[in-house]
Amino acid sequence: MTTNARRRLLRDLRELKKEAPQGIMAAPLDSNILQWKAVIFGPPGTPFEDGIFKLSMKFTEEYPDKSPTVTFVTPVYHPNSTSSHLSHSIGLMHWHCASLRFCFTIHCVCLCGAVYTNGNICLDILQNQWRSTYSVAGVLTSIQSLLDEPNTASPANADAAHLFQTDRVEYERKVHECVEASWIDSRFTSASSEPE
Question: Which residues belong to the active site?
C-alpha cells in the first residue's frame, strides 16, 4: 500500500542519496520504510568532531504533516541530553534502547533544545514550527547543529550545562569521552540491517 507518507519518505531517501548533508547518513530498514537508522557525525571544529552518533527514526502514516520520533542510540554528553550517564548494562548501545528521544514536541524557540528526564527533546522547528516541507535531512541537520549549539537556558543535563558555561575544558573532556565511546559500538553495520 502506497501512502503519502511512504511516497514522501521515498522522496526524502532519493534526496539523501543524491546529495546528503555533510556528516549525515540515513536509510530505512529493508522491512519497513517507516523505520529508519541514521548516523550523525560530530561537526568538524567542535568538541563532537569525529563522534559517530547513531539514531533511530520512526515515522507514522501522517508524515510529513506530523514530525517523526527520533531516538539517539549513542550516548551524548550535552546540556540538552540526559543520555550521557547511562551505563551500557541497560542497553545504551542497542537500537531498541530509548536513551535519548527526540519526540519533537517542541515548546522552545529558534533551534533551542532541551531533553527532559524521560528523554523528550524540544526543538522549535519540530512542533509549533514544524512544516511538512521539512525532510529527513533537515531534521538530522537540525540535530547535528544542536550538538555544537546547546541551549543552556533550558538544560536537561544541568551538570553539562553548568560545565559548558563555567569550565569549558572539563566539559570538552567529557564530550571527548563520549566521542571515543561512540567509536566502540560496531552494531550499526548498515542502514538496512534490522535493529537488535
Answer: 122
